[in-house]
Amino acid sequence: MAALPVPVPVLAMAALLLLGCRGPGAAGQRRKEMVLSEKVNQLMEWASKRSVIRMNGDKFRRLVKAPPRNYSVIVMFTALQPHRQCVVCKQADEEYQILANSWRYSSAFTNKIFFAMVDFDEGSDVFQMLQNYIHGSSQAQFVAETHIVLLFNGGVTLGMVLLHEAATSDMDVGKRKIMCIAGIGLVVLFFSWLLSVFRSKYHGYPYSFLMS
Q1: Which CATH architecture has domain 29-122?
Q2: Which of 24, 27, 175, 205 fits a 20 to 30 Å CA distance from 52?
Q3: pTM of this structure
Q4: Quick one: a GO cellular component term (predicted)?
């Protein structure tokens, strides 16, 4: 039996339907790739000028929180303005700058990892945003909160290790002094954050250190 010819209008309609089904998905993918390319190019431009990218609330939400993202951003939250009187923040910033510079000017540098900083006076809304990761009650705990507390404890532990090495190592005095300062900075900073989390969960807890 001979096949009946398909009318041209039917073929045209089928082609339009096929394009209609594929068009939005392809356009959405192209849009996603374009946005991602713009974000990476922007970060690379900033990283070429300074190893630690300073972010405010808008930059943090757009480049760190919002998809698409095929890169990681290491962010230090600090308070460097003189009226904050955070001496440890200054010391931690110096160590962070050294770490970021080591990565930026190493042969392993790629556009997959960036170092950034959010100062409280430039992005207080970001600090408020991060409070959503800490449950306000001692009767519950978010999954993210578990990792945050683990990170803080790890920072305190690393600081203690550096202090021990500074006291017992046979390295020259200059390096031991740097290790000692870095160790003190880590212990003070992360222990202060731990107390801050504890105070936010156990209301009425009277003690704090550096941060309320």
Answers
A1: 3-Layer(aba) Sandwich (3.40)
A2: 175
A3: 0.56
A4: plasma membrane
> What confidence tens digit (pLDDT) does each residue in 141-181 have?
776 778 888 888 888 999 899 899 888 888 888 888 888 99
Residue (of 142, 181, 183) closest to 159 by Cα position:
183
Sheet holding 72-78, edge to edge: 52-54, 113-119, 72-78
The token pair at 84 is 């904050």
Per-domain boundaries in the chain? 29-122, 136-212
Contacts of 121 (CB under 8 A, 6+ apart): 79, 81, 84
